[in-house]
Design goal:
Largest sheet: 6 strands, antiparallel
Strand order of the largest sheet: 1-2-3-9-8-5
Distance between the termini: 23 Å
Oligomer: single chain
Strand content: 35-45%
């Protein structure tokens, strides 16, 4: 299952874990991404909290946690090659993984159809 936040962040949920990244819409808006700041492994995040930063040739933007949890892994490949967030934002361009602490928060996020409508209006 994949869910989307109104901050243009996605989370792919498998069991009690989630993989988090920015959406196609977000990377289109930002342009060529040149730097990512990822959260530390072990960091506890609350839904909506700033988890990291993405910088492009045009702008910098905060990456907000779509749901609460503890960071279990970060994408070191993305840190070395930030352009993956442009070329594969929903695949190898993921930012971090977390163990969900409040899975009920997923209900406040959008499914793919709702997000497509939301981002088309953004």
């Amino acid at each position: 299952m994949i869910k989307f936040s109104d901050e243009h962040v996605w989370v792919r949920v498998e069991g009690d874990s989630g993989t988090v990244g920015i959406t196609v819409h977000a990377q289109d808006t930002l342009g060529d991404i040149v730097f990512v700041d990822l959260p530390a492994v072990g960091r506890v995040l609350a839904a909506g909290e700033v988890a990291g930063v993405v910088e492009s040739v045009k702008a910098a933007a905060d990456v907000h946690a779509p749901t609460s949890g503890t960071v279990t892994e970060v994408n070191e490949t993305l840190r070395a090659d930030p352009a993956l967030a442009n070329s594969e934002p929903l695949a190898s361009g993921w930012f971090y993984k977390l163990r969900l602490s409040r899975p009920e928060e997923l209900g406040a996020l959008m499914d793919e159809a709702a997000y497509a409508k939301f981002s088309a209006e953004a």
